[in-house]
Predict the 3D structure of the following.
Amino acid sequence: MPSTLLWQKAIEDLQVNAPFQRLRKSLLLLLQLLVLIAAALALGKPMFQHVRTHDDNVIILIDQSASMSVVEPDGRTRLDAAREQARHTIDNMSDDGRAMVIAFCDRAYVASPFDTNKSALKARIDAIEQTDGASRLGEAIALAEAYLQNIIIGKEEGGADVAPESAAPPASVYLFTDGNIEDLDKVSPQRLNVDNLRVYNLALRSDNVGILAMDARRHYERPEALQVFATVRNFGAEPVTCDATLYLDDQVADVQTIRLEGAPPEPEGGDPTPLHQRAPAAGTVAAVAFDEVNFESAGAVEVRLMIDDALLADNRAWTLVEPPRDVSVLLVTDGSIFLENALATLPIVLETITPAEYESRGDEELIDNGRCRYDVVVFDGHSTSRLPQGNYFFWGAAPNVEGVALGRTIDDEIIFNWDETHPILRHVAVETVQVFEWRELKLPREAVSLIDGQTSPVLSLLNRDASQYLICAFRLISEDDAGNPIMNTFWVTKVHFIVFLQNAVQYLASAISTAGVRTVPPGEPVTLPAPAGAATVLIRRPDAVPDSVPVGDFPTIHYARTRKVGVYRAEPGVPGEDRFAVNLFSEIESHVAPQRSMTIGQSPKTAQATSMEVNDPAWPWFLLGLLAFLLIEWVVYNRRVLV
C-alpha cells in the first residue's frame, strides 16, 4: 500500500510539471469566458437593425405652430410626438452622419446647426417650445437651403466665378407636421431635392370649435354702453352646442348659447383647395352678439368658449377698451367752413386754431407724457414736422417725416380703386366721390393705400413709431386761377362724408375697433410708447414669464415675443397704452384635422401616418447576460466551497 501511494504521488507531480495538458472540464471557467464575451460585445454597442439607413446628411424640420398643441388620444401633444420621431431619426443615422434641426411656426429658426453629436442634437430637439403661432414652411425651407449653399469662389474676370461641388451627400429632409401649413401653396424649394423629403404626420383628432374674429365697440350715443361681437366656427364633423361667455375684467357679463352644424367629410383623396380658400359649410359658422352691457372703465374684454375640444388657443379671445369719454380733436386751419361744421356735428370736444398758433404753442400745451394731448389733430392744408407721438389727419398736406412728400398737382384723373373693407371706409360710398384735383403722394412702402387714383394714392394710412398718419391728398376747398376759393369736391354735401369723418376720428382715436397695435396675431411685433424716464420696461406675458426690454433714448419700445395668446402688460407703461392682446384668429390653425396629402414645390407628398421604426440598442441585453453569468458563477462557486 505505501509503495502504491508513492507511485500515485509521483504521477501527480509529473502531470503538474508537464508543459502540455488536456483542458479539464470546468463550469466556472466556462462561465468566466461567457462573462468576458458578453462584456466585449456590450462595449461594441451593437444594435438590433430594424431600419437600414444610409443617411449621412439629415435636415429635420419640426412644426411648432398652434395646432401642434392638440392632445391626441395617447395623451401626448402633436409636438411631443414630432419630437419623439425626430429623436428616432437621429438614432437611425449612420455613426458618422450629421444632422441639422429647424423649428418653424410663423417664423423659422435654427434649433441646431449641422452636428454629429447625437446626444446634443436630441437635447436641442427636446428644447423646442410650443407656440400659438401660425405655420409657415417657406422660411424653414429657405434656412435649410442657405446652410446647404455651396461657397462661390470669385474670379477677377466676369462670368468666371466657380461654384465647387459639395463633397457632402445630398441631404435627406424629414418634415414633422400635421399638414396645416398656411403658405404651402407658395413653398418652392430651389436647391433642396424634394424627392428626398419625407413627411411624418401622426395627428388623429379633428374635433375643434374656434373663435375667428372678435370686436368690441362703445355705443355711438351712449359711450358707457359696450357692444361685443364674435365669429365662431365648428371645424369638426359632429354638431356642437356650447356656451360663449363674455368676461369684463374676469367677471362674467353675459352668456350666449350657440349651436353649430358639423362640417362635411372631405372627399376621398383629400381636397386640393388650400385651407384658407375653402368656404365654410352652411351652419358651421355663427355670429355671436352679446347683450349690451354697461362698462364705464378701461379693461380687458374676453370671449370664452365653454367647450372641451382639440385646440385651446382658439377658445378664448381678448381685446382692450378705454373708458368712455368724448374724443378731443384739434383742428388746425386758416378757415374751412365745411370741415369745421362737419366736425362740429360729431360727439367730440373740438378746438380750432390757425397753423401759426399751432407752431407757436409751447410744448406743455401740446404734449403730455411724451404724447400729443389731443386724441386726433386735423391739419387742413398745413404740412408740419412738429408731430409728437399721436394721431394725425392731413387734408391736402403731409407730415414732414422720412419717406413722405407731396408732388405735382393731379387734375386729370379719377378715383380708381378703394378698400371698402377698411373700418375708415365702412358705409362710405366712395364710388360717388368726385374730386377735381389732388396732390401726388410719395409714401414709404409700409403705408397702406385706402383710396387710389390712376397713378397716385388719394387716401393713405401710415403707422410709424406709435403714431398714426391718415393722409388725404386733396383739400375740400381750392383756389381758381384768380386766387378765389372754390369747392374742390361735392363730397361735403353727401351724408356719408359725415360718416367718413366719424370713422376716421374714431379709428385714429382707437375708440371703435380692436384693430391696430393693441390686438395682434401671434408672433407679430408690437410697438409701445416708452414712459418718460424709464430705463427698462417689464413685459408680463400670459404664461407669467416676465421679459425685460431696455428703453435707451428711444421714445418707443419694440417687443416681439408674442407667440402665446392672451393679454400682455407693460410695467411701467403709458396709461391707456400699457396693455395689448394676442389672438389666434386663424382658420388654418383651427382646422386641426390632419392633412395627409400635400404638394411641396409641385411635388405631391403623402405623409406617413405610423411611427418611425428605430434601431434598438442590443448592448443592454449583453450587459444583462453578463450579470446573469456572474450570478450563476457565484452560486456554483459557493456550492462547491460549502460542499
Notes: Residues 619-642 form the longest helix (24 residues). The chain is about 20% helix and 30% strand. The longest strand covers residues 209-218. Residues 529-573 form one domain.
